[in-house]
Amino acid sequence: MFPKASSSQSTTGFSGSDALSHVYIRYPPLRCDIPGARGLFYDDGNKLLFSPTSDQIISWKTSPFSPLVIPTSDSVCEGPVLSIRYSIDAKVLAIQRSNHEIQFWNRETGNTFSQKCKSDSESILGFFWTDCPTCDIVFVKTSGLDLFSLDSELKSLHLVETKRFNVSWYVYTHESRLVLLASGMQCKSFTGYQLSSAGIIRLPRFEMAMAKSEANSKPVLAAEDVHVVTVYGRIYCLQVDKVAMLLNSYRFYRDAVVQQGSLPIFSSKIAVSVVDNVLLVHQVDAKVVILYDIFSDSRAPISAPLPLLLRGFPRSITASSQSSSRNAEDSEAKDLSDTEAIIYGDGWTFLVPDLICDAANGLLWKIHLDLEAISASSSEVPSVLEFLQRRKLEAHKAKQLCLAISRTLILERRPVSMFARAIDILVTSYSYSIKTGSYLKGMKAEKSLPSGVPQVNSPSTIADDSASRVDAYGKSVKHESVSGVHNDSMNKSPTFSGSDSEDNVTIEPLKTSSGDLHSLGGNVESKILMGAEVPSDGVQSGLQSQLLGLGNNLLNSNVTNHQEPQVTSAAVSPDEMYSFVISPVEEEMSGDTSYMVSIIIEFLRSVNSEKIKVHPNLYVLTIQLLARNERYAELGLFVINKILEPSKEVALQLLESGRQNIQTRKLGLDMLRQLSLHHDYVVLLVQDGYYLEALRYARKNKVNSVRPSLFLEAAYASNDPQHVAAVLRFFSDFIPGFKSTSDHNSYCRILAEMNSSITA
Amino acid sequence: MGLSSVTTGSDATKFCIFDLRRGQHEGEELDKILFFYPADLPFSTQLSVIGLSEGLITFTRIFSPEAACEVIEAEGHSHVFYEAEPDVWMVMIVEKSKESEAIWRIDALRRVLKEVHSLFMMFHGSIRALLDKEPSGGLVRSHLYTFIMDYLSDFLVGKKLQLPNFRDSLKERGTVQMLTIGREAAIEVQEDTINLFTYAVLRFSPRALSSGLSSWSYLRKGNVSSHAATGSVSANSGAVLDQFYRSSGGDPSYHIARPLQQDKWTKGKDGFLVSDIWKAEAGSSAATTPTIWLQKTEEKVFLCTFQHRNLTLILLFPVISLLNEEQGISLVKQQVLENASLKIVKVEEKLSKGWGGENAYHVSGCRYLLVDGDRNVSRASPPTKVTTLTKESLVALNKLREEVDLEKSRAKSDSPDSDKDMEICIRAKNNAWVIARFTRGKELYMVLEKANETLLYASDTVENFSNRYCNGLFSLD
């Protein structure tokens, strides 16, 4: 589906010739190496990547991710930069200048002011903006949290509230709105707050588990060993225990923090990403990534550990036979030096959820899942389908894969029970998506957009920076970025900007039954009901208007954004199941109608259990299949028991298939009558020679649309003058003006002839 | 065993089968007799009965070579004729008597003849084939004798044969009770049976399913609890099997399998019914699985019967699909148990829940019989309700049905393809309404006692019944 440049896979790729992977980054990256830059900073609240220079802040929009995005800039005073964040409405720029001072910049007026610590004994660890109703910005200090609000003129901060604790370090992500404050000797005691639009929730204090290597050793937990991840609208904390070589997981509820078990790790350095609710645990030292779908209780990885790949890198085009113009392109395309192309390089910082910042080389990569590879790596069809149905980022592709898997199931004549399980998953998922409305939303999006066109693959506008320049600045950039970006790596942001429920995270009340965890989407739903939604749309639009205001060409990013079909759900409707699976497959399976019928029955059973309607075409197909094998007795039972639901299409097919079987034809007739399709019923009765019954029926149900000549012809064909006379009389009596029609005259004559021939 | 009790000569009913192609020379007359009941009548009497029948057949053939006589009504007896196979005739002679309930409907009696013959065909093949196999006739006689005597034992009341009479005029032999089930249950049933077949048959030969065999086993729930083990193959469900046209599958041996023996079926531990009936037949090869012949598809099939509570499941699969019979069958059974038994339990529960009991199909105010001739199913007022009708009403209905049978056979010979619509309403002597209605292959009989005297009332009742229970089928105003 993607234009996977086969060249990049076939030749010496970054991981050798073996191109097997489930996760990849795609060339080209977003280039953010600016001359004179003093490191890279990430603002996960606004999904912006900053690179401060001496008097400017250059920023790149990272969501939607596009290598072609044009950076914007703000002019600021010179000075040290520890951290940069725009306010949620993007009107104010906040720059942490030191451990004691944060400077604010009104982007409209250019006014600035600073906020400093009151005492020297405390220092600012960091800050973040919040959409909490009571405050706008939170300072995290060694002495606790300071909650401030911005005054209406954006000229000063007012302290709203102070929360006092000792803080060693902290972790915050905007997508979870959760700040975790570490304290204690080992930094393993945590206090947490969620500051969302629903208000402030304080989590109960909890301790993280730390194994001891020796009796007296007391390992200290570091900030880089704690990751807050958001999957399926739930918030988890993953903590690396380097002694036990385990990744402990904790789930946050409104009133409890519950340990959820541990995942094994194979590297002392662990990074975590979340792509489309799939948890990626990067085993950095081992240079492999393990995927988990922690929707259910299962802690089993989705697939075996495989390396992260770089795809689309046109490395092999350097063959000497290439034309000069191609070579020119190549030299540009080959701007990735060998040092830049190192996967899991030292300069890599993982920005949650799914970005990798190569601070050393000034590159930003986005991580992608290869759904095709993942689904191909497992033979457990039901679990693959479940996995695919939960994918939203590439819902269109997931959906296509589901359809393809279903087709293959049938074509390979897998056991009916296997198909039954598969179809149950698809139908349940569809039923759920109907209830939540995501299916319809997806349909709308799909309609308004062209079909899947891959990303534009041209080099980025700022990619003309030569590689040598990186070398010149590389060291200093790298040095600075280690501290700067490292700090920011705690501030993670969602890339998927849609107003999807996944963006809106809150802490739920603890549910005692663990069964809740795998009830399909139940948690997401309850979360929405609690109304703790985060107006990420507002963030987005605010930012966009601001960018527009600066006169930047947004068209580019918009185009790339819209080129992937935005189906929001991989759910497959019964109609699509018919059109894209059963109908196309049926032609190839023509030799095995019994199997096809079993498949359809399974499908009907599944659909019926969710009380979903199917298109009559499916019933029509079933009738055709049964009739083709002359299984009329079964067909009769199917109709009588209403397994094939009555409809005009079904009735007409029964009549058609009933040409060889009178009982089947009768079923079609009966169905027409039961559906009160009076006109068709009367016409067919006449066709079958039951013209007198047809007349009675027509009179009773006031059917006037059938031409009298039809009845008269039928009566004439029976060669019974009495019947012709009766029919004539009927129309003369009940149809005004019939006596003056040509039908009347001609049949009177015919009747007279019939009578005379009899008497003669 | 058990046979002698039937053969008392006191019975007024006689039943014989003879072959017109045999015994046509003087002194060889006995050759033509293939079966006679009561068997202990002297040959001279048997020959005179058969001779009379033969004479009547020969005589009526002069006028109607295709279909010779169907019935002869003598003063004291009715002779019912049925040409089961070309020149093989079955004749039943019943005594007429107003006092002793001996009021008959000929078509009902003929259906008995048809049924016994079709059942015989299913298990032993055609009479002609057996005659060809052993021209002396010993083989076919011994088969017919045991088979028919077993069959007739179902009609034995004390020592007398109780054939269907006017009291059974709200019953239709050869039909299965209509089973109304919800769509959901229906899908489950279909799914299950198809699953069974997919599992069972796909394992052995993918061709089997596409060969046109009706691959649904018939699921039936009924009042067979007392004969649970035998119900599936003996008289009760003879109608079920009747849907499959059959012919020979027997082994040339005088060890005659007696499939209709009720006490020879037992339910095995695995839920499958087992019988040693066929053991004798196959001799040393020890084939314990019954085989029957489906004439329509011309396939010899194994008959496997599975029971779970009220649910009987009949599995048929072609003999040719199994290379090793014993292994194959145990594999099928294993597959059924492994893959379907849970669902069978579920379906049984569903059906049992949906089963309204004996009186579920009772419609107050009337006694009725609804027959769908197209699919051999019927529904009727429960027998306990029918017994509340007076003898007069039942006799009137019996008479009406005789008329209708006549009209039906006439219409059939006139235009075999189209069904006539018909409507008859009779006011009986006891002021009951006796009604018959016909619409394209479906028949409705109704008795209304203590009803309003107007014809309008009677026709309204039918109309309401039709709208309510038959989707307006009979509502042709």
Labels describing this entry:
heterodimer, A: 760 residues, 4-stranded antiparallel sheet, B: 477 residues, Beta-Lactamase, 3 domains, 5-stranded antiparallel sheet, 13 helices, globular, disordered N terminus
Write the layout of secondary structure elements.
The complex is a heterodimer of chains A (760) and B (477).
Chain A: H1 6-10, E1 23-26, E2 30-31, E3 41-43, E4 48-52, E5 56-61, E6 72-75, E7 83-86, E8 92-96, E9 101-106, E10 112-116, E11 124-129, E12 137-141, E13 144-150, E14 157-164, E15 169-173, E16 178-183, E17 189-196, E18 199-207, E19 226-231, E20 234-241, E21 246-252, E22 257-264, E23 270-275, E24 278-283, E25 288-292, E26 308-311, H2 324-333, E27 348-351, E28 355-358, E29 363-369, H3 371-376, H4 381-389, H5 395-411, H6 416-436, H7 438-448, H8 467-488, H9 522-529, H10 536-549, H11 555-562, H12 574-588, H13 593-609, H14 616-628, H15 632-640, H16 648-657, H17 662-674, H18 678-687, H19 691-700, H20 708-717, H21 721-734, H22 742-759
Parallel strand pairs in A: 1-26
Antiparallel strand pairs in A: 1-29, 2-29, 3-4, 4-5, 5-6, 7-8, 8-9, 9-10, 11-12, 12-13, 13-14, 15-16, 16-17, 17-18, 19-20, 20-21, 21-22, 23-24, 24-25, 27-28, 28-29
Helix pairs in contact in A: 4-5, 4-6, 5-6, 5-12, 6-13, 13-14, 14-16, 16-17, 17-18, 18-19, 20-21, 21-22
Chain B: E1 14-19, E2 33-37, H1 43-61, E3 71-73, E4 77-85, E5 88-95, H2 106-124, H3 127-133, H4 138-152, E6 156-157, E7 160-161, E8 176-177, H5 183-204, H6 206-210, H7 228-231, H8 235-242, E9 265-267, E10 273-275, H9 277-282, E11 291-294, E12 299-308, E13 311-318, H10 325-354, E14 367-372, E15 377-380, H11 383-386, H12 391-414, E16 422-427, E17 433-439, E18 442-448, H13 455-469
Helix pairs in contact in B: 2-8, 5-10
